[in-house]
Write a structure and sequence with these properties.
This protein has a domain of 98 residues: Pnp Oxidase, Chain A (Roll). The protein is of the alpha+beta class and 145 residues long. α2 packs across α3. The chain has 3 helices and 7 strands, in the order ββββαβββαα. 21% of the residues are buried. 24% of the residues lie in helices and 42% in strands.
Length: 145
């Protein structure tokens, strides 16, 4: 039995850089098969399709992270390949097949490390942590093991 979820956000990880890909719409399906594959479909503006076209043409794997169901959820990291691109009116449907990255993805720990690296301490650290746990700044959660 497959489970389908709404995509809230989609980001491509390039080293330490996180690139937001604004979604017009999107969903993710846990196929719950033996291979533990997920299907991810995004509907994006034409201006963002280039990176997906390159990955599709070259067969490159993308490291992505998505937020599923609710904005306050932690990003889930995936390794994915583009399976199909299709122009629909002025948008593009991008179908990816991926595997959830089994590495530990503790957003709170990533955020705390990020804030400490910025030199924030004491009461300012606590306030920044509380605020950022709600706003979820872009941090690369995907680990390219």
């Amino acid at each position: 039995m497959m489970k389908t979820f709404k995509l809230i956000s989609f980001q491509i990880i390039d080293g330490e850089t996180v690139h937001d890909i604004p979604l017009k719409d999107g969903l993710i399906i846990n196929r719950e098969d033996v291979e533990k594959r997920w299907l991810i479909e995004t509907f994006i503006a034409q201006e963002y399709v280039g990176v997906f076209e390159d990955a599709f043409k070259n067969g490159n794997e993308l490291f992505i992270q998505v937020v599923i169901t609710r904005p306050e959820n932690d990003p889930a990291p995936f390794r994915a390949t583009v399976v199909k691109l299709k122009k629909i009116n002025e948008s593009y449907s991008v179908l990816l097949e991926g595997y959830i990255n089994k590495s530990r993805n503790d957003y709170a720990e990533l955020l705390l490390t990020h804030l400490l690296d910025k030199g924030i301490t004491g009461d300012q650290l606590l306030e920044a942590f509380k605020t950022n746990m709600v706003t979820k700044p872009k941090l690369p959660a995907a680990n390219k093991e």
